[in-house]
Amino acid sequence: MKTVLVTGGRGFIGRHAVPRLREEGFDVHLVTHSKPLNTLDGVQVHYCDLLDLGEQRALVSRIRPSHLVHFAWYTAHGLFWSSAENLRWVQASIELLKTFADCGGRRTIFAGSCAEYDWSFGHCSEASTPTAPRSLYGTCKTALQQMFTQYCRQEKISAGWGRVFFLYGPYETKSRLIPSVVTALLEDKPVRCTSGAQIRDFLHVEDAAAAFCAFLTSDVENVVNIASGRAVSIKDVVELIADKIGRRDLLELGAVPISEAEPPMLLADTKRLAEEVGWRPQYDLSRGLDQTIEWWKGRLERQSSVAPRVSPSIAEGGPAAARRVGRADGMKRGESS
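Structure (tokenized):
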């Protein structure tokens, strides 16, 4: 049986990818540093700090996986762009790759980011769009991709690099664009937005997990965009959410200025994903948002059922509690564990 090691296996993408890999017939080993998990059928869970290089090497040497999927990274919302933790994750990722090679590993997929691209191009093609990252995060991912590609070629390891665009769905960090709009509207709170003119490429996280699994089980190598290839404005996204919840009256479009750092458009060329990997999304935006809204409804209901009673003045938080959204400034959705 093929053995796959999945880092960040309880992160945003990883938690959706692990069951699919099990269905593909892999002996799945999940690595996480988070609190103990419920038993996952047919999945072996390992608690490991991947930044502890000795602990990491011992784990990989013991498992000796034939396949490796690396999602883990530092992704604290709003902080990861400039955090020095990015440098530590480059080092940890290089060591992970080297140990995997030393143990006879055959096929690996690492998660990259659209933050590697030159955003001034708008339309991002693996073949023709140059890399020109604007942040430490994007620079670290770009540098790692170059080292990853050269080392795997040298060691004759089959390797792919999945550049992730804008993901959404269950378990996304609540402060990000789509969940912040959904939860605010479900709680009858106003949502202060930019004009929403920015064009983005959104993909449901379950589709992203399926794309990574298809990528791993293919023989396609090098960079592949993990995205929908469909352009949609942020305005259209938030208005669709509001219409589904029935609270468009709470949207305040144009209340927040668009940052000069935000590109007008970020759209993926998904030709390689469709034609070479042979994968296409199963969720359209409407269906994906329906599922996401229902998930957040359930989450909020469970939280309210166990929340302690708080005085209205504290709970409501006054005018400052109004959500300020519409900035698409967080590219990577939960590769960390």
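DSSP finds ten helices and 16 strands in the chain. The CA atoms of residues 172 and 179 lie 7 Å apart.
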